[in-house]
Amino acid sequence: MKIFRIRWWSRLFDSISYGIKRRFGRFLGGIWATARFFTWPIRGTIQWLVQGWQRSNFRNLLFGIPAILALVGAGILWAAANVNARTVTNSYLDRARSAIDKKDYKSAEVYLQRLIDTSSSNSNQAQFDLGEVFENTDRPQRAMSIFNKLAPNDRRGYPPAHRKQAVFFAEQLNSQSTGDDIRLVRHHLTHSDGQRTPIVARAWASYYLALNQAEPAIERLEEAVREFPELSLLLGNLYLSTGEMENAKASFTNASEFLRERVEKDPYNRAARVTFADTLLKLGELDECRAVLELGMKLDPDGPYKQLLASLFTNRHDMMAQEKGAPVSVLLTALRQALNYDPTFAPAYERLVSYGTATVDGGGDLSEILADVIAQGEEPGLAHFAMSILKWKQNDVESARFHLERAYRLTPDMPFVANNLAWILATEEPSDVPRALEILEPAAQKYPNEPRLQDTYGTILMKLDRWNDALDKLERALINQQKPDQRIKLHEKLAEVYDHLKQPQLAEKHRAYAQGAPESPVPLTPAP
């Protein structure tokens, strides 16, 4: 029975196995073949190790594998540490820059300082960013200390710091800059890696302007003006200097558009308004220029707008004077408008005086022309004044006095008319010194820094023997007088005044200057 059971079971197993092989043999064979194919590297390696183990050199190599693995592991750990350090460094740098973008300079400073203290990588970048933080938080000395360290003046350093230094030193260049100042700008520009950005182009333009090289300066300004439109005015002036009129006009137009927008946004910006007016003047837009300046005068009464308006109308006079056939009365009207804005505006006064000495085209009679202007009632006050100059030049003092009297009655607020009339009344016979003082005193007190008025005022006081008062006026005149011939006359008067005041040393000093001694500063060595 037992035997039967075994045989039955065995036969059953064989039958099942045969059935499986028959039904699934190909499938299982494929799996086995695939497994052998993909595991052959492992089986081959094991076979190679077993065979190699029988050789001593191979066994030594296997014994050294742990050391090799340890060395490789150490390298991997070192690389991982560096990657981690760089990650931390970049994280600090990113956070610092994000804080700078948000103007959170306090946080940015903390991140950058940690980065500088804990890492040598990106150190230059971190220090540069820290310098900019100091710059933006009103700590210029600390900022410059960092930039100077990163970009020394005598060797190559960190390029962005050289750019920063170049821009800073270029802004300091002017007509008084020395060769060393100019070379310093070039040194930093040369080591800024030649970046062609608008701000670097502006620095190069300043460098070339300091060397009076217009052409390369124009080339750089054409690059810089894309980002800095306020440079259009400077570019236009350079075009003018090189005779490129069309380019100059285009640049002035761009400048006017930029400045118009700035003035509209900030009507009280004095510098922008003045520059805008100057640009309009260059474009010949005189009416708009006048409107811009008059609005400035209303908004900012203490600004320089009266002088600028006087200059505007003096320029208008000059432009009309160049046109043939311009009526004298129209030209005098332009000068009157100039003097209405600024009664002491010297250029307008000088042009007015020139009408008394002008040469008439075709050999005409200047006296007849001025008389015709007076007779027609067109600017008679200024025409009388011009006629007085003409008669004075002809040594006709009586006629000069008459025309000055008429000019003073018609234009009593013009200080130069009062000045000339007072001078004749005080110095020419028949003299009337008290009336001269009465006429001049209001104008001289209103304009205490006008040297011609103070000169005449002091001269009248000398004739009244008021020596101390005369000294006050004449010394004030000397302070503000720039013309050498007029200074000589003032020194002569001051010498006389000091003689009467019993001050011989000062009298001799002024007498020496009146005789031509050079008026140069005297060096003084301080006591130890």
Describe the fold and architecture.
The chain has a domain of 105 residues: Serine Threonine Protein Phosphatase 5, Tetratricopeptide repeat, CATH 1.25.40.10. The N terminus is likely disordered. α9 packs antiparallel against α10 and α10 packs antiparallel against α11. The chain is 76% helix and 0% strand. The longest helix is centred in the first third of the chain and has 46 residues. By secondary structure, the chain is mainly alpha-helical.
Q: What is the secondary structure topology, with strand pairs?
A:
Layout: H1 2-38, H2 40-53, H3 56-101, H4 105-118, H5 123-136, H6 140-150, H7 159-171, H8 179-190, H9 198-210, H10 214-224, H11 232-241, H12 245-265, H13 270-282, H14 286-299, H15 305-321, H16 328-341, H17 346-354, H18 366-375, H19 380-393, H20 397-410, H21 415-427, H22 433-446, H23 451-463, H24 467-480, H25 484-500, H26 504-514
